[in-house]
Amino acid sequence: MCGIFCGLSLSSAHVDWDKTAYGYLKRRGPDSSQNVTVTGTDSSYCCSFSAHVLHMRGHLTPQPVQDDAGNILLWNGEIFGGLPVTPEENDTAVVSQRLSTCSSPSKILTVLSAIQGPWGFVYYQKAGDYLWFGRDFFGRRSLLWKYDDELTALTVTSVAAQLSAADRSSWKEIPAVGVYRVALKAVAEAGSVSFEIFPWVHAGNDFISSCSEIILESIPGGCSAVMNQSGLTLTSPVCPLNTSLNQTEIHPDSHLSLSNLEELLVSKKKTDEVNHLIGVLSEAVRRRVHSLSFRDLDSSLPTRDHASIAILFSGGIDSMILAALADRHVPAHQPIDLLNVAFKLQEPKKQKESAKKLKKKPTGYKTDEAGSQTFSPFDVPDRLTGKAGLKELQDLNPDRMWNFVEINVTREELQKMRQERISHLVHPLDTVLDDSIGCAVWFAARGVGVIMEDGDQRPFTSSAKVILTGIGADEQLAGYSRHRVRFKMSGHEGLVQELAMELGRISSRNLGRDDRVIGDHGKEARFPYLDEDVVSYLNSLPVWKKADLSLPRGVGEKLLLRLAAKQLGLGRSAVLPKRAMQFGSRIAKMEHSHEKASDKCSRLLTG
Question: Which domains are seen in the chain, by residue range?
Answer without folding.
Answer: 2-235 (3.60.20.10), 258-345+380-605 (3.40.50.620)
